């Protein structure tokens, strides 16, 4: 972890996960020689000052570039899983969502004028018993985030779409919390 400090990256920011993705870290806090060398080479960084500059660039680009954000977000799922597990423990997933979906940590703000999405999402999952998060749900939460930021009224949502059941149920939970039934909502 000293290395991350040397390149001015904090453990509690999305840029740390961006560096892990760049260097193909096999698990949290671990770098292989091959991943380290190849990652920095691909970024054109051959000294500490260039690495610091590249880390700052990653920090700025992650929230601004959806493709980079998605790549780092998706890389985080296997990175944070416990060895031998297929799913991500709820507490770890919630911690990562708080990192990715708040600007204070270099992520994207998952709130809209009338909906505190991140807080509601975690509250909903806690009410359901803090179940482990599978890869499909993990990946679709990021897609769902983008849709809700475009239109918080769910005009894009369809019960027939291929969303994970947990997200379908969350839509119903949000509707109930807002005081709207499914029939009252405008959906495609």
UniProtKB/TrEMBL annotation:
Function according to Swiss-Prot or TrEMBL: Neddylation of cullins play an essential role in the regulation of SCF-type complexes activity.
A Pfam entry, by short name: Cullin_binding
Protein name: Defective in cullin neddylation protein
Gene Ontology MF: a single term: ubiquitin conjugating enzyme binding
GO biological process, one term: protein neddylation
Domain DCUN1 intervals: 1-175
Organism: Aspergillus novofumigatus (strain IBT 16806)
InterPro entries: DCN-prot, DCN1-like_PONY, PONY_dom
